[in-house]
Amino acid sequence: MNGKILFDKIWDTHVVRSISGGPDVLYIDRHYIHEVTSPQAFSGLRQRGAGVFRPERTIATADHNIPTINQHLPIADPVSRLQVETLEDNCRTSGITFFGMGDPGNGIVHVTGPGLGYTLPGMTIVCGDSHTSTHGAFGTIAFGIGTSEVEMVLATQCLLQARPKQMRINVSGKLLEGVTSKDLILYIIASLGTGGATGFFVEYAGETVRKLSMESRMTVCNMSIEMGARGGLIAPDEVTFNWLAQIPSVSENLEFSHLVHQWHALQSDSGAHFDREATFEASGIPPMITYGTSPGMGMAVDGVIPYPGETGVSPGEKLPSSSGEEPSTGMAGHKVNGPYLKSLEYMGFKPGMKLLGHPIDYVFLGSCTNGRIEDLRLFTAAVAGKKKATGVTALIVPGSQQVARQAEREGLTETLRLAGFEMRQPGCSSCLAMNEDKIPAGKYAVSTSNRNFEGRQGPGARTLLAGPLVAAAAAVTGRITDPRDMGWRL
Questions:
Q1: Coil, helix or strand for 281?
Q2: In sequence order, what are the residues at sequence separation of 6 or more whose Cβ sits closer than 8 angstroms to the Cβ of residue 354?
Q3: Pick from 8, 57, 29: which is nearest to 265 by CA?
Q4: pLDDT tens digits, one per residue of 367-394
Q5: How do the residues of the chain divide into helix, strand and coil, expressed in percent and rounded to 5?
Q6: Is the whole-model pTM more than 0.90?
């Protein structure tokens, strides 16, 4: 008899009602909101004369539009200022906890939520933001929703959702020195393609995943959406429980020990059936970098930009399809030459090029993908005792006020200053062009964020996605550099 997968265990305990031949009415434990996708939802509630059903289940923060310097001053951009002020007003009138700019609890929603203990194993979590899958690292069903769905959750604390198909990605072995969790997920996306997990919820499993820290697990789950997945999750274990035990609001809960006992059951049973499975060997994963305008266009940092029809990495195990059809390869297969070559033209690259030694202009360390204390520690340890390369603009942006304070206590901020870097204030920053931290047209940015679409970091900006070590190597050399050649022992 087949066992039950983790996703179904969580989903089934949250179904309020099943509609015959249709979706389920799913109860939502935690609803995160920010200034970009919530104003229209609150406006819709007012038009219908409805209120927020369970305001204690919603947590709000300002992150996308806020500046990362002079946060003690009013936001200069009038549109951004209006969005943040509107969020604050909506939260005040609805009784929703709000962490505004400069508040000790403020930060990127997917960093500050877990850091403050609002994300717990076994929850259903939604937010009007595609990278809500980050919270799946704690063993939750977490996914992004649209503005109309934000309104639905505010009004009812429920959501109409069809149960997605299930996929498991197994990673075995040990990651090599100089290879981070960001390299791991970029490698998986490059191998499976941006459509390789479309329609699926992904569970990450295997020895490699179990050895990852919580911050690294969040990085992996964060980018699940970039291969088309509805979300990604990892079964909670002692790594999860020990991390949560460091958060006073969680560990001081009199029910914490009982909750941990319950959370131990949040595992896929032996023999559980997944619609698709893929397997990767960690020892074959190099430091990665993207070269195009899709997260799936990734290759080894010391590799060569592939020609159409080739791939930049060694592919993972082919995915068997439950329908018997051959799965889509997405951008990994580069089957459509026109868009592929157009993407390279935008980046100023050509097939057959090596990127090692290519000059860069900007480095961005931050975002909900790599803006946590682990990322700052790794980057800082790499650049300690060195100097930022002349001509490189580096944006070092902690993901939350909490992370910024910890970096200060640990001396990371001072070490960065001595190396010529400036620590910015928390926010989404250069992940996307919705605030002042834009990358100028034509400039190359090695970025630890999650998307490299045309114009994502600013009109005409050229984004190369990478992990903190590849970013650090670029920051001190001024060019794309293999971190394994830096002699680091981190």
A1: strand
A2: 302, 303, 304, 305
A3: 8
A4: 999 999 999 999 999 999 999 999 999 9
A5: 35, 15, 45
A6: yes
